[in-house]
Structures are given as structure tokens and as C-alpha cells.
Automatic annotation (TrEMBL):
Residues 80-288 form the DUF1996 domain. It comes from Kribbella yunnanensis. This is DUF1996 domain-containing protein. InterPro entries: DUF1996. It comes from the Bacteria.
Length: 316
């Protein structure tokens, strides 16, 4: 999976009901000022402890315990059904992968009925990241591999429930040190950086984005779309988030090299296409077929095998 990756290294019932309402019925917020306050749900600076946990997870080897989905870019739009539900055009431009129907009004029910461009087709999950631009022109990824990995107490890993959603990364970062979740590299080269690299001719730009592996076991969402998830402390999930889940990792390859690179983003309360590389972030809304996801968690993650897109071991 690349040298760069190896180097970079009780909730009360009302909380459950709130999460389910958020999950099934996006609220319309017409007339809301889409200011930095709104976007701050995607713009938190991690604490030093959280940063250390993120870096440790990035450096953790994947000891033969993963499965994957191969997806493509489906469409792009100024929508974000997690941060701005029901607000078409309320967000900066995102690149959507997987479920082909994802938009600002998406619900679990609508996504279940939608299509997918992922292999396997049992993965109807919605994935999205900010759109990449080169010299002001949007660039669709050449390849998107979604890895599900057993890096934290894999034998006790559980499958995500349908409707679980969370975000990672700091869209409002003002410096590379404020966003340790994402890292850029060039295909075939060892160097990595939280900001864009100028990849030489003959290479391609790629990005790794790593999600947390511990869930509170109750909520499908939280007000900032992050607090129901956590990174492990060492190899153990904290008592507040005791449920181990596979580590979700995006590996996105773009057919570009050189300079002139920017991201869609939010700067000073406005949606732009000139955000720096260290603002990369991503969203996940789980719509896997439950039986197929459970099979992969059992036969790949918990059993300790590397599996292909069909969920069968390819390496022992």
C-alpha cells in the first residue's frame, strides 16, 4: 500500500433519538447564513493528545487485516448532507464517490434506494472530499480505494451500523499542523506532507485520509459529527468510546503532477476553490449491505486476512 503510508506515520435515550432524527430527516435551514460558524463543524483543531493518537494510528502497520472497495468519482456539487443537511449549495464543492445519488437531501432511506459505482455493489455508502483544482480547473480522481483495516484490537472489531456517519480533517486549518488526519504524497515516492507536494513528471499526486477506530456504541452522529468517534490510546479504545470498528482509510490518486494545486474550501466564511492542501477532509455515511459488511469484518478483519473487493482472502 505504499512506502509513504508506512512512513507517515451509557448515552441517554434523547441522544439516540436526536442522532436518528438527524440521520433520517435532514432539516431544511433556508435563510441560514453559511458562515464560518457553520463550517466550524468541519474545522476543529485537534488537541495535542488527539494529534499524537492520529499519528500513532497512521504509523501502525496493517498486519494482514483488511478489506477494500474500489470506487470512482460520481459527481461534484456544493452539498454536504452531514454538515449542511437539506441545504443545496450550502457547502463548498465536494467530490462524491460511491453512492451516485448523494446530495444535500440524502437520507439513509434514499441512499439505500440509490446506485453505487463501487466494487463491490454491496457498498452503497456515501463518501466525499473537497474537489481538487489544478490551475483553477477541477480534477476528478483517477482512482479511489477505500480501505477498511484492523489496526485496533482487530479480534474484537464490530461492523458499523447502517446510518453511522462521521467526518475527519480540518477544513478551516490555517497551517499544516492543524490537520494531521490527511497527508499528500507522490505515487512511487517516499516523501509525504500535510500540504501539497510538487510531484515530478512521471508521477501522480495521491492523498491518504485516516478515520478513527473507536465508537461510543450508541450514537449514529453527534453535533459536530466527530465526538461519537475517537482515536485509540495506544492500541486500546478509550472507555468513552469502547467499541472497536475497522479503520477507514481513503487512498485517492489524482492524474496530475507539478504545481498550481488548490482545494475547494471555506476561507473567511466564503466558499472558495483556492484553499490550501492542508485543509483536506472527508466524510463517510455507511450504507453497506449489513450482511456483506458483517461477513467482511468476520472473515477479513477479525480473522486477520487481506481481502479483495469480493471480501475473500487474497493474502494469508
Amino acid at each position: 500500500m505504499g512506502t509513504a503510508k508506512l512512513l507517515a506515520a451509557g448515552v441517554v435515550l434523547i441522544g439516540v433519538v436526536t442522532a436518528l432524527v438527524i440521520h433520517d430527516q435532514p432539516t431544511s435551514q433556508a435563510g441560514v447564513d453559511h458562515s464560518a460558524m457553520d463550517h466550524s463543524q468541519h474545522g476543529q483543531v485537534p488537541s495535542k493528545a488527539e494529534e499524537a493518537a492520529m499519528m500513532a494510528a497512521q504509523a501502525a502497520p496493517v498486519r494482514g487485516s483488511e478489506f477494500r472497495a474500489e470506487c470512482r468519482s460520481s459527481h461534484r456539487a456544493g452539498d454536504d448532507p452531514i454538515v449542511f443537511p437539506g441545504q443545496s449549495g450550502g457547502s463548498h464543492i465536494h467530490e462524491f464517490f460511491g453512492n451516485t445519488t448523494t446530495n444535500a437531501n440524502s437520507t439513509l432511506q434514499s441512499l439505500r434506494l440509490g446506485g453505487t459505482n463501487c466494487d463491490p455493489v454491496s457498498d452503497k455508502s456515501a463518501y466525499w472530499t473537497p474537489t481538487l483544482y489544478k490551475n483553477g480547473v477541477p480534477v476528478a480522481p483517477e482512482r479511489v480505494t477505500i480501505y477498511y483495516q484492523g489496526i485496533t484490537d482487530r479480534t474484537n472489531a464490530r461492523a458499523y451500523p447502517q446510518g453511522l456517519r462521521y467526518v475527519i480533517g480540518n477544513a478551516l486549518a490555517t497551517s499544516p499542523d492543524q490537520n494531521p488526519a490527511a497527508r499528500w504524497s507522490c505515487v512511487g515516492q517516499s516523501q509525504s506532507s500535510r500540504d501539497f507536494l510538487v510531484c515530478p513528471p512521471g508521477t501522480k499526486l495521491e492523498n491518504y485520509l485516516d478515520f478513527p477506530t473507536c465508537w461510543d456504541g450508541t450514537r449514529l452522529d453527534s453535533p459536530n459529527h466527530k465526538d461519537h468517534m475517537a482515536f485509540p490510546v495506544g492500541t486500546t479504545c478509550p472507555s468513552t468510546h469502547p467499541v472497536v470498528v475497522p479503520r477507514l482509510e481513503f487512498l485517492i490518486t489524482y492524474p496530475v503532477n507539478g504545481g498550481g494545486l488548490t482545494l475547494a474550501g471555506t476561507r473567511n466564511g466564503s466558499n472558495v476553490t483556492t484553499a490550501p492542501g492542508y485543509t483536506f477532509h472527508g466524510d463517510f455515511l455507511n450504507v453497506w449491505d449489513p450482511a456483506e459488511l458483517q461477513r467482511r469484518v468476520d472473515n477479513c478483519i477479525r480473522a486477520g486476512y487481506v481481502c479483495g473487493t469480493d471480501g475473500n482472502p487474497i493474502q494469508q
